[in-house]
Amino acid sequence: MKLKMAERSLFAILLRSPWWISFVLAIVLGLLVSAMLPRQYSALGASAGFPFLVIGLIAAWQQLRAPSPARIAQARQTLAAMSWGEVSAAVEQSYRSKGCTIGRYAGNGADFEILGPQGKLLLGCKRWKAARTGIEPLQELVKAAEKESARPVYMALGELTDSARSFAAQHRIAFMQDADLVVLASSTTGAAKSDSR
């Protein structure tokens, strides 16, 4: 059984926050506990912030590896300029490079069916250029995912409406976001090379 951290837990929130916040919490907690304990145990109290220090180190590592805002903007521009054929080829190339099996989904609500280490996924991405995504394509994706016993994933370059964001959270729809888009945009080069052979 694979354990998953609750998305709204303190540690999960800190992992998504700037790394230095966890470091500040570690220092403050360590100082507070040290001050409350008798002098002979003050060194032990300083270690109370250790879990926050670890979370801060993990967050710093993830943020160091994350693409820059300029690179994300460039990826969005690249993908927005592409045709559906180019995007679909890039999606297929990207998932195959991760060792997944990917094929076109025959039904409504999704565009690709993906089998990989995370199980079965249904990916919806035909409306990737829409400036704002409403609830309708997400409802169709969830319906298809429930039918196929798959996890829903959605790709969009634009914003989600408030109702779509709420629906996505309620139905645990994963999104191809910033870092995923950078990987996808960079895989277009590989897809273009393989098409030219």
UniProtKB/TrEMBL annotation:
<keyword id="KW-0472">Membrane</keyword>
<keyword id="KW-1133">Transmembrane helix</keyword>
<dbReference type="GO" id="GO:0016787">
    <property type="term" value="F:hydrolase activity"/>
</dbReference>
<keyword id="KW-0540">Nuclease</keyword>
<keyword id="KW-0378">Hydrolase</keyword>
<feature type="transmembrane region" description="Helical">
    <location>
        <begin position="43"/>
        <end position="61"/>
    </location>
</feature>
<dbReference type="InterPro" id="IPR007560">
    <property type="entry name" value="Restrct_endonuc_IV_Mrr"/>
</dbReference>
<keyword id="KW-0255">Endonuclease</keyword>
<dbReference type="GO" id="GO:0004519">
    <property type="term" value="F:endonuclease activity"/>
</dbReference>
<dbReference type="Pfam" id="PF04471">
    <property type="entry name" value="Mrr_cat"/>
</dbReference>
<feature type="domain" description="Restriction endonuclease type IV Mrr">
    <location>
        <begin position="80"/>
        <end position="182"/>
    </location>
</feature>
<feature type="transmembrane region" description="Helical">
    <location>
        <begin position="20"/>
        <end position="37"/>
    </location>
</feature>
<protein>
    <submittedName>
        <fullName>Restriction endonuclease</fullName>
        <ecNumber>3.1.21.-</ecNumber>
    </submittedName>
</protein>
<keyword id="KW-0812">Transmembrane</keyword>
